[in-house]
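Task card 7
Instruction: Convert sequence to structure tokens.
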Amino acid sequence: MQVQSINYLYPNKINSGYNIRAHKGMFTTNQCVAPREILPSYNCVLSFCGITHGGDKLKKLVRYGIPDMYTGQMLLDSKTLEYLQYKNIFEKPLKDVILYMQPHENTLIASGKQFYELLKETAKTKPDITISDAIKLYRPEHEKKLVNDQREIFCKLIYKGVELPPDLYKDFSVLTNITTKRLLKDKVTLPFSESEFKYKLKRIEETVKSRNNKDEIIAMKTIEKMAQNCFKTPVTPTGHVYLEHISLKDRKKKPGIVKATLRKKLEHQMRPEVLKRNSENLEKIRQYFENSALKGDSELTKLFNDTNAKIHGYPFYAKFERKSFLYELKKITKQLKNRDLAHELMNKAIELPTSYENLSAFIVKYSNDTSSKIGYYMMKDSLISIDHIVPKKNGGHNTIRNFGLSSAGVNREKSNIPFADFVRKHPETYENCQKHVDRLIELCNEGIFDKLEIPRSYIKEFAAHIFNLSPKEKKLVLDISKLKNQ
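Output:
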């Protein structure tokens, strides 16, 4: 059978699985068998030299249908998502969205999959509403559920936090009080963060670019440049650290140096000289904004208003952000000599729901976005990505022999976790990795590897690499006996 690449989408039903055949621009697949219990006999010497950019070639396999090595879900081609957005599919009524999404149902993972199933149910009774209409219907119920889940975790954190030393407990109390107010939608006083301000400008730039207005794009670039020049982290002569960024080199020279907590930042920024400098810099950027092509932009206006409130210590409404809470908590736990307590606090905080795995968090986070954006976020975690099996931060090499194919969401979750630990956390990898390699073997035997200039030795080395890195108590043995020309 000659395998053809996949065209993007037509509104017809397809079957699930991995054996691709072209049919009216669609594809169907058949399920692979479960891994066989055999002894590994890969007969290859694993090396980390040679091809250094094989990831791009591996990603092209998505055209022929390839399952995630960890979840077994089919991986999504970025061009498919681009096509859906280009055709404004997500802006259509639910009945049409579901029809066009059918060929890609088996790529969805985590909360994206849960949300899509919810849309399918809604389409049965309200076929003519949009995704943004539907998510607003879901929000009240899921917001209550999310807050209840968050409160339960925070209660346990606060109970455990009393074991902190007095000085760190003050920092912890400020953090938890602010967080509680944000969850209850009360006004809070937050410190100004130079890096956060620049980061949010970068995010807004993406929206500005999507409008494709040359004058607005130029104005946005100017605002970002002004922010870079105006908000530079100063060096304090006293040795007290109230800074945004401290290099690893400086931390090694002075082990006592740590990043400032919320409490210390709030105290520091109210100093007359700091307040004067920050307010003058913001006003300079704001004046340019109000006379530029971006004047009146709602996102920038809100950012400037919120930033002004932070600089002057005015209370304002700020929604809870899981990532920033973990960041602030980590600054406290890093100073803790009792490492067991530090790990307990961080492990409990990490249980806070994320929009990637929790449906309620997904709905609350994106309920104010357009249908196009919601549709994008529903599918983006399914996009094919290159997983460094040994993470680069752990010494893994940037070569094809250290690459695997997984979805963007799973890759982000894995992050710098060692492969063996991730497999222990996700034992389904034993079965799904065999499905993944079975599909690789099919494509290799059909000549697709040669066509894409992927070394045939990749499969052997992948299997050996996985075996060596898998848990010692239960090795991940991949059967590659069907691979031809070994």
